[in-house]
Amino acid sequence: MKRNYFIFDMDGVIMDSEPMHKEILKKVFGELGLDFSHSYHQTLVGMAAVPMWEKIRSDFSLETNARELMTFHKEIFFIEVASIDVPPVEGVVAFINRLKELDFTISLASSSSLKLINRFVDEIGVAPFFDYMVSGESIARSKPNPDIFLNVAAHFDEDPSKFIVIEDSYNGVTAAKAAGMTCIGFRNVNSGNQDLSAADLIVDSFSELTSEVIKKIAS
């Protein structure tokens, strides 16, 4: 069976943005008077905004509803992010070009907002390479549920088994495997000590994903 489709996560896979998300969320926690820890943050990586705030609300017994908390987070986020320079992950632009040369269909499925997705893919010049992009904002259930990846498969009217997902988080890998897709775990040190063990292949650099490796995992 030929796997002709690649799906990229964005934060930590295309953009090295997890440190930015962490620092802004730490600021939001401070504004709300909540304790922020590295270990707790690791449980949130890969989640969309509303489900993330539903989890935080439950964990900290907050009375404010999740959407109000999300709105507060967004207000701070888009003020802070305007002055932050976020670099692409090393080697990812060349890798995306390589996939297009090999005639793969490429999608982006990110828990981030569509506004942030559009900003980042435009900034690094890869927007034209993506055949489809979907934000967790438009999906009812966030990663680690498989919904966002199944949305991509439904868009192309293809069986999920024909897709290869690249993820840097436990939540993302779990979602990809639950969707019935092949998953490459990308170990990004800035995403923290994520458990990627359920992935079919784990890499530390895009340079490891040569044309030969890509053809093998896609076959």
TrEMBL record:
Pfam families registered for this protein in UniProt: HAD_2
Record key words, sorted: Carbohydrate metabolism, Magnesium, Metal-binding
Cofactor(s) the protein requires to work: Mg(2+)
Signal sequence segment: none
Annotated family: Belongs to the HAD-like hydrolase superfamily. CbbY/CbbZ/Gph/YieH family.
PANTHER family membership: 6-PHOSPHOGLUCONATE PHOSPHATASE, HEXITOL PHOSPHATASE B
Name used for this protein in its record: HAD family phosphatase
Protein source organism: Joostella atrarenae
Taxonomic classification: Bacteria, Pseudomonadati, Bacteroidota, Flavobacteriia, Flavobacteriales
